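Input.
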Amino acid sequence: MVAQHYISIDARINKEESKIYIQQEVKFLNTSTEAIREVYLNDWANAFKDKSTPLARRFEEEYIRKFHFSKPEEKGYTTINNVKLDGDSLIWLRPKDHPDILRVLLNKKIEPGASVFLHFDYNIKLPSDKFTRFGVGDKGDYKLKFWYLTPAVFNGGWKIYSHKDIGEQFTPPADIDIHLNTPTEFSPSSSLNITENYVEGNRRRISLSGKNRVESELLLTQTYQLETLPVGRHRLVTNLDDDGLQPEIKDLILTRIFDFLEERLGAYPHKKLLITREDYLKNPVYGLNQLPDFIRPFPDGFNYDIQQLKTITNNFLSNSLLLNPREDQWIYDAIAISIMMDYVDRYYPKMKLLGSLSKIIGLRWFHAADLEFNDRYQLLYMNMARMNIDQPLNEHKDSLLKFNLNIANPYKAGIGIKYLEDYLGSTAVRNSISKFYSENKLKLSNAEEFASILRNNTDKNIDWFFEDYVSTRKKIDFKISKLKKSKDSLKVTIKNRRENSLPVSLYAIRNDQIIYKTWVDSINKEKTVTIPRNDAERIALNYEQIIPEFNQRNNYKGVSKLFNKPLQFRLLEDVEDPRYTQVFFMPEFEYNLYDGIALGPKLYNTTFLSRNFSFKLSPKYGFNSNTIVGSAGLDYTWQYLNRDLSTIRMGISGNRFSYGYDLYYRRYTPYLSFYFRPQNLRDNERQTLSIRNVNVFRDDNPEIENETPNYNVFNVRYAFSKSYLVDRTSALIDYQLAENFSKVSLTLQYRKLFKNNRQLNLRFFGGAFIYRDIQDSDYFSFALDRPTDYLFDYNYYGRSEGSGLFSQQIIMAEGGFKSQVMPEYANQWITTVNASTNIWKWIFAYGDAGIVKNQGKNSEFLYDSGVRVALVEDYFELFFPVYSNLGWEVAQPNYDQKIRFIVSLDINTLIRLFTRRWY
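Output.
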């Protein structure tokens, strides 16, 4: 096959400026059926030019701070000097919202089948490699990818996509010739053929060429050289860590990988393949890459084998199958992940998910230790499905959440192929994949061609796979609703709990062994089938767990057994085992000043995957209070697809703890919550409407007169938030109704990170009583600096303390003041504004101002100011008051008692700080 396009590049590298000066010629062939008056090219080097590009915005959406806070010299850009056709200069421009795309206006039409030669004179400033792993490294190595202009695809319209660090360019194959003039110390590594590499004077001349190429990743290194390893008729150029393996072991592994791929797909069309550490780290084997080096639970060579397998497979496919990577990525993923699963099944058939850790006493008691290595794919996909934030496989890649993009969607695609193989037989599916690869190698193709080949290789109807499994978020959930037994047969009624038409496998089980299996399809709502009894003890749906089913816990019915499933108690949280009714228990501790460390068991039913019904019972012994405290709760969750109202949760919770020395409170709260999330899951907007009734029973405190120890408060809250790295906006409207008062409040917050890295934080709080019939008590009043927390919502470590360290804990609620100025409460209305801006990095100047109005008194204006040290923003902060209504506080005695702090010990809150970019 002869490439339709041709690219010739003469480039000179200026190491001191991190610039490449380029003269480039592009032969563009019009392969469409219509004349073209303009040409679009990818100029992804310009994606790094500033903080307003699509790439920069993508970083902001995912809370990646390094680009926003980078220095100007670390960014990159393209400078176009001129564009010519037949010696005439052409007009070029950049489309709106696509600064990394070049639009060239031609001075003549390109008729169908005709071609033109475009000449470009430009230079690029390379960015630091810390943003996308490609660019200029800390040691001066050049890791080049998407560094020169490439034509976009015209297929009934131009397919232009900006660089968002989410995969490959979409560009037609081209013959490539590159001539480089570099400093002498650079050593080249590429999948292209290196036809020249010699020193001339104080410069090095390098020439590279390739046929039918869609990418030309190039490493110019001066601190190390990549290995070039012969693998059959191919050569592999790599710098992946080999864990010190002997050359003959590496040769065995790499030969085995290539042989396996060519057995399953067909011959690779190029002689060389570049496999870099950078490519692997962009798409690692999740699980392996999180393990520290000193933990090696897998046998020698396994890590190297799996890392090379994944990276080689991905490059093997992307360099030969020319699919639109933004629209048809799921086909790459389906083929790659299913091949990886088959490879592990063939060469590591007994490999466990935890490797050798599964044999360690303690760990081997967990169901996670029983899981095979390949079980990880369904487990990680189901994480998103259970959270109701999974996305269709054919969703545009730009719209995918980071977790779905990197993990859940590829894994769902791979296990979908295994689902098809089990339904159709593996031969039909594997032959279809091989045929698709061989017929579309180095040609633009699409998902429709893949579907057509699959359909043609079977007599069964597989429309369900493309219409329900690939194209929707519909979950798979079957249930055995009825079982009618006779001497020789079983009449089984299967209920499809979702609106789809997917098939399900039905099994008869005896002594935990499969004695019968059949497939049942076309289940609209319910379907009854008859199977032989064969002395079965139980029947089950999806017993081998090949189908990624949302809820497998209702898949069992006892035939000769009393219970559908045995009850199982497990120590510590584990991976769900649907063969059992599981209850978990684990030690748990909490802390407050009065109970001290409260330690006890937590009895619960949730696993690593969320579930609709959950319960928790957590009694604890307080070592300071010498009594039983703790909490309990149960709830049920309804989830909705393709609606802004994504979740409804109803439940009841209760707890008992100390609120003072020898003083206890009991609280129980029934609640109903509605959670709203845009159908565009990358939109970080969140809305919550919560309705609850908080019932509190407290021990009488003899030191406080006119106290109301027992009360209940009906509470309605509406919360809105939209949070990104650069902008964060939130609002909270709170209404409360009790026997003796009714009140309403509004909290608004805005956080802005400017392009000069200046951060501004603004917060407004306003609250007023609608009516109040309380005498001589501020227990239910609005607080200026330290709310009384009569609803027991906040995690105070010493909630009743008026002095000492625990009284200095601050929770940003209500007035939000840091200084303890008077009056500290408002029993009529209050308005406050809190502001801060950074002085240097994580050191801020803050100021608060507000008006407090109490009944029978004039309103008072209050203010304070100081220095805020945000070591971990919103989680670990210190506040040093400077000046307020009290005067210069730094000059006053006992200043150390005026310092306030925020400390979060809630592990779930801290985990969200690190996982928010993924969800």
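The chain has a mean pLDDT of 92.
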